Structure formats: structure tokens, C-alpha cells
């Protein structure tokens, strides 16, 4: 019985392969005839377009809203958005826009005109051959699935049905993979991808000849003044705990320790004495023999 079941499954698979080869040969001839009638000019080109823009603007939220409106008006949508602030406090945002390929150049021009263009990168990749190949493989795989289903309808043995079901599941999985690849190619070729980076215009601007002007000097002086105040505040904040501790120790000394210390006796003043008067002038003694 096992040998007979194996032979049944083998014959079913061989019958499926033989029927598929015959149908494939017939379909291939029809496909070749159809391809011969088709001219190369009738195959539409499939191009994947991507671009990256970096634009400086004065108001990032307003520019972002205008970019979103531009994409939606062209029939596209916003694919992703990331907004934040840099170390200097300037706001920036990065948004991914998907727009129809037919209006790609128009939308790109509107976006780069929103402010000062800093950087632009555009790429185009022709995938026409890949699209044609995937479409052909999808048609062939669909025909293969249809043939297996036809054989399942004609099968009379349970072993043949089980074998054909396995073949059908495998070929349907291959067809789903091809359909996913086809949908991805269609999405990337029908909609272009534009990555737009918006940042605030720097406040400080140098003069055209490269030398700083009055505004630059004023801004630099104010920055130095603010920096000095910041350092003074940092020093005072660092000394504040020590000053508080010193004041507390002085208060404890004055209120608690000093009153308990023994007082020194006050020195007794010496009695006042009369100042000696001037001595009388002594006359010199006379020598003998002098009058």
C-alpha cells in the first residue's frame, strides 16, 4: 500500500509537471507572439526618484506647514517627521514627503524656494527592466497556480489531491512574494521621495567682505557680558554654602561660646604723681682767691 501511495503521489506530481510544461509551452508561444507585436516604445519607463533638501528659514513651524500643504496639494502625503532643537536653541525639523512623480520637479522647486538653499541632492534610478521582469514572472506564476487548481479539480485519488495541495501552497507563496515586490516597485516609481531638512536662520551674520560690523561687535560684547555674569553667578553659588557656614559659626560663637568664657580683670590705673619742677640754677662755686 505504501508503494502504491508513493507511486500515486509521484504520478500526480509528474502529471502536474507535464501538464504545466505543455500549458507553459502554449502560453509561452502566445506570450512570444504578444511580445513580438509590442514595440519597445510601448513599454512605459519606470524611474525611482529621490531628493534631499536642506533649507534655512526664519520660522520653522510655518515653513513646515507650507511644505506639508505643498505636498498634499500635489496629491502626496507626509511620510515621516522629526522636530527638535540644537545646542544653540535653534529649532530644526526633518520631514519625508511622498509626491507623485509627475509633479516631482514642481514640488521640488517650491520647497527649495521657501528659504535659503544650503544643500540639494537628487537621484534617479531607472528600473524599467526590473518592473517588466517582475510583471512577467507574476503572470507566469498566476498561470501556474491556475493550472495546479485545474489538476486538483480533475484528481480522483486522495494521494494525488494531497500532493497537488502541497504544490499549490508552494506556488501561491512564490506568487505572494512576487506580488509584494511588484507593489513595492509600483509605490517607489509612482511616488517620489523628498527628504526636507528645515533649520532656523542663524542670528549672527558676518559682513559680505568678511569683516565684522557694528552689530557683530555689539552682539559679541553682549555675549561676553552675559558670559561674565554667568561666571560670577557660578562663583557666588559655589561660595554661598561656605559663607552660610561661616555666618552660622560666628553666630554660635557670639551667642553661646563667648558669654561663657571667663572675663579678664581690668587693669588698675597707676596713682598720679606730681611732675618734678625745674631744678634751681646752681651758681658755680668760687675758687679761693676770687672775690
Mass-distribution shape? elongated
Distance between the termini: 189 Å
The computed structural class is alpha+beta
Sequence stretches where pLDDT stays below 50 over 5 or more residues = 1-10, 22-41, 203-208
**Mean of all residue-level pLDDT scores:** 77
Write the layout of secondary structure elements.
Blueprint: H1 2-37, E1 47-57, H2 60-73, E2 77-85, E3 91-100, H3 104-112, E4 116-126, H4 128-154, H5 158-190, E5 191-200, H6 214-260
Parallel strand pairs: 1-5
Antiparallel strand pairs: 1-4, 2-3, 3-5
Helix pairs in contact: 1-4, 1-5, 4-5
Structure report:
By secondary structure, the protein is of the alpha+beta class. It has 6 helices and 5 strands, in the order αβαββαβααβα. It has helices spanning 2-37, 60-73, 104-112, 128-154, 158-190, 214-260, and strands at 47-57, 77-85, 91-100, 116-126, 191-200. Strands 2-3-5-1-4 form a 5-stranded mixed sheet. A hairpin with a 5-residue loop joins strand 2 (77-85) and strand 3. Helix 1 (2-37) runs parallel beside helix 5 (158-190) and helix 4 packs antiparallel against helix 5 (158-190). The protein is elongated and about 150 Å long. The termini are far apart.
Amino acid at each position: 500500500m505504501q508503494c502504491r501511495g508513493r507511486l500515486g503521489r509521484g504520478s500526480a506530481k509528474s502529471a502536474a509537471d507535464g501538464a504545466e510544461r505543455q500549458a507553459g509551452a502554449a502560453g509561452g508561444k502566445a506570450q512570444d507572439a504578444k511580445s513580438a507585436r509590442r514595440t519597445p516604445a510601448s513599454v512605459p519607463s519606470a524611474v525611482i526618484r529621490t531628493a534631499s533638501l536642506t533649507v534655512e528659514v526664519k520660522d520653522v513651524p510655518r515653513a513646515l506647514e507650507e511644505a506639508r500643504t505643498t505636498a498634499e496639494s500635489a496629491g502626496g502625503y507626509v511620510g515621516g517627521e522629526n522636530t527638535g532643537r540644537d545646542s544653540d536653541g535653534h529649532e530644526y525639523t526633518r520631514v519625508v514627503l511622498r509626491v507623485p512623480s509627475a509633479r516631482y520637479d514642481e514640488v521640488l522647486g517650491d520647497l527649495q524656494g521657501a528659504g535659503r538653499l544650503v544643500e540639494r541632492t537628487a537621484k534617479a534610478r531607472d528600473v524599467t527592466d526590473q518592473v517588466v521582469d517582475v510583471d512577467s514572472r507574476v503572470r507566469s506564476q498566476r498561470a501556474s497556480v491556475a493550472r495546479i487548481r485545474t489538476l486538483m479539480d480533475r484528481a480522483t485519488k486522495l494521494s494525488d489531491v494531497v500532493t497537488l495541495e502541497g504544490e499549490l501552497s508552494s506556488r501561491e507563496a512564490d506568487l505572494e512574494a512576487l506580488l509584494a515586490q511588484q507593489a513595492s516597485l509600483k509605490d517607489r516609481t509612482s511616488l517620489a521621495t523628498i527628504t526636507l531638512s528645515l533649520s532656523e536662520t542663524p542670528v549672527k551674520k558676518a559682513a559680505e567682505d568678511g569683516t565684522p560690523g557694528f552689530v557683530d561687535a555689539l552682539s559679541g560684547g553682549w555675549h561676553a557680558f552675559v558670559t561674565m555674569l554667568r561666571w560670577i553667578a557660578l562663583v557666588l553659588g559655589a561660595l554661598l554654602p561656605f559663607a552660610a557656614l561661616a555666618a552660622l559659626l560666628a553666630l554660635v560663637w557670639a551667642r553661646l561660646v563667648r558669654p561663657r568664657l571667663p572675663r579678664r580683670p581690668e587693669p588698675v590705673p597707676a596713682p598720679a604723681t606730681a611732675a618734678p619742677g625745674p631744678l634751681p640754677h646752681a651758681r658755680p662755686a668760687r675758687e679761693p682767691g676770687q672775690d
